[in-house]
């Protein structure tokens, strides 16, 4: 049930994160080669520079998968990944307004961080979507796997379309350095959304625990009180402390 699964807040957050992660990945597809053209690299070296991010992604993705299997918080990994991507673009650009020189080794380090951070978003998102679907009562079978895989792939494809399209447009208008603010903004959106979600959920749990403790102490006993009193309600015994026999206060 695609409509039902998209109503889960965790899944919406993860879908948004996959889109933003794919945007940052696709951004370099259209702009990296013109950006490193100043170094006059050979075609072989240029190809090596292009695969650095993919190698970093391929090496770190199994590590994040293992962490997810060990029940590490996937949303914290997503926040960490967004910070890595922001740091990577800070070095690849570098950001305008900084005095950092444009050197090849800084671009290489930035690409390593970008691949490392992208894996920290893509892998935990898939795992978190799957676990959120199970918690909401979806069956543990191939139908749920298919829906989750479809959502993840669709979100990735959308981000992979938006990233290069906006990258080419912004590169022609403002140049590479200012254009990097677009993927950086996407990662900031992930970071803020993830931590906002974590804080809201933690606050909700604190409220539930507080109410649970109050109910356990007899302070907030849940009772259904009729809107219109009957003769039987009027005959409820009230003790000297102002409480009826069921333990709720009589006003």
TrEMBL record:
The keyword Membrane applies. InterPro entries: MFS, MFS_dom, MFS_trans_sf, MFS_Vesicular_Transporter. It is a multi-pass membrane protein. The chain crosses the membrane at residues 12-32, 44-64, 76-92, 104-130, 142-162, 174-200. The keyword Transmembrane applies. SUPFAM superfamilies: MFS general substrate transporter. Gene3D superfamilies: MFS general substrate transporter like domains. GO terms for molecular function: transmembrane transporter activity. Signal peptide: none annotated. Residues 10-251 form the Major facilitator superfamily (MFS) profile domain. PROSITE patterns: MFS. Its main location: membrane. It is found in: Membrane. Keywords: Membrane, Transmembrane, Transmembrane helix, Transport. GO terms for cellular component: membrane. PANTHER family: GH10249P, MFS-TYPE TRANSPORTER SLC18B1. This is Major facilitator superfamily (MFS) profile domain-containing protein. It comes from Diploptera punctata (Pacific beetle cockroach). The lineage of its organism: Eukaryota, Metazoa, Ecdysozoa, Arthropoda, Hexapoda.
């Amino acid at each position: 049930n695609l409509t039902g699964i998209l109503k889960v807040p965790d899944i919406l957050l993860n879908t948004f994160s996959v889109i933003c992660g794919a945007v940052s990945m696709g951004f370099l597809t259209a702009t990296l080669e013109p950006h490193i053209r100043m170094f006059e690299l050979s075609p072989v070296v240029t190809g090596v520079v292009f695969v650095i991010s993919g190698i970093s992604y391929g090496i770190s993705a199994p590590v994040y998968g293992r962490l997810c299997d060990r029940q590490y918080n996937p949303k914290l990994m997503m926040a960490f990944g967004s910070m890595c991507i922001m740091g990577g673009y800070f070095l690849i650009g570098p950001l305008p307004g900084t005095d950092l020189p444009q050197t090849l080794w800084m671009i290489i380090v930035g690409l390593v961080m970008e691949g490392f951070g992208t894996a920290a978003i893509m892998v935990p998102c898939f795992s978190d979507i799957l676990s959120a679907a199970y918690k909401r009562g979806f069956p543990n079978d191939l139908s749920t796997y298919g829906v989750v895989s479809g959502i993840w792939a669709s979100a990735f494809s959308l981000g992979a379309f938006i990233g290069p399209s906006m990258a080419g447009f912004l590169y022609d208008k403002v140049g590479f350095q200012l254009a990097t603010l677009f993927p950086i903004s996407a990662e900031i959106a992930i970071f803020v959304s993830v931590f906002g979600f974590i804080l809201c959920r933690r606050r909700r749990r604190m409220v539930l625990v507080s109410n649970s403790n109050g109910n356990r102490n007899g302070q907030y006993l849940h009772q259904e009180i009729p809107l219109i009193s009957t003769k039987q309600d009027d005959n409820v015994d009230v003790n000297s402390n102002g409480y009826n026999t069921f333990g709720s206060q009589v006003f």
